[in-house]
Amino acid sequence: MKVIVQIPCFDEEHHLPQTLAELPREVPGIDGVEWLVIDDGSTDRTVEVARENGVDHVVRLTNNKGLAAAFQAGLDACLKLGADVIVNTDADNQYMGADVAKLVAPILAGEADMVIGDREVETIEHFSPLKKRLQALGSAVVRRASDTNVPDTTSGFRAYNREAALQMQVVSKFTYTLETIIQAGKMLVAVDHVPIRTNRKTRESRLFPSMAAYVRRNAISIFRVYTLYEPLRAFLAAAAVVGLVGAVIWARFFYLFLSGSGSGHVQSVILGSTLFIVAVQLAALGVIGDILTGSRILQQRILERVRRVELQLGVEPSHYEPGAKPTGQPPTTGAAAGRATGKTEGREVVEA
Q: DSSP of 134-186, one letter per residue?
């Protein structure tokens, strides 16, 4: 059994050493623990610092792609590097590295495919009361959307077994935390959670400029991901609301008409008719979305099987570089790049 701890990084040369210092090299029930840093286009010495502190693998993205893209790139690399369990943590040392053992325990026991670390947000001192309430509200919405019981849905400290990682496909550009939970809840992935500890705050979050931006982006992410998996339910609910408003306006007009004072209220008929048309269109969008969902699920299954084929064929991880020591894995970036960049040395040339 091999565990790879992946750490998405963007300009983290100052916080990365402490984060790595707390990560374990041994976990009960695991044969080996390796570290992988995903450099999301850093402009500082993040990669050099990672190597100086003993990181085994580096995935270096050419420019800044965002947290969700870095997470997905790391997931793909960990699978191709032979990970049986993948642990994701943040580079700002928010989570206690010693809790990696607690995080992977349900997976080793065969009780879960994906485990989320519960920060127990109510106990975090540097979270304001407003942020705690918003976290609780957001987590409740995600639990409802995903049919899971995860109490801390925005926690980035989480573990995946090989099967769960093969099925994860992040399409969001903002964050992977909410999408992967909703995705897992709608698929054959058993989700669990364990309480974890957090360290003192080292810096402000760089994912969002303000609390309002955080709420707005997360709300959009939840709606977008939920409608990907439940478009019929989402659009029929919207159609029902709009249709109900139209029906109330019509009922008001007919009441006034039957009572002899309907003259001058023709606009109510027009508004009610417009809302009824909108309701029909929303319902039609739900039906179309439901059909597209079937196609998307088939595409996701195809992507999962493509990943399995790539692993069987031994395709190298993209944007890969060895860490502190040679790993025997050829780099796939720079002048010494291997097969993943399309080089044909050693391959049989196909003749026309």
A: HHHHHHHHHHHHHT---S-TT---EEEEHHHHHH-----SS-SHHHHHHHHHT
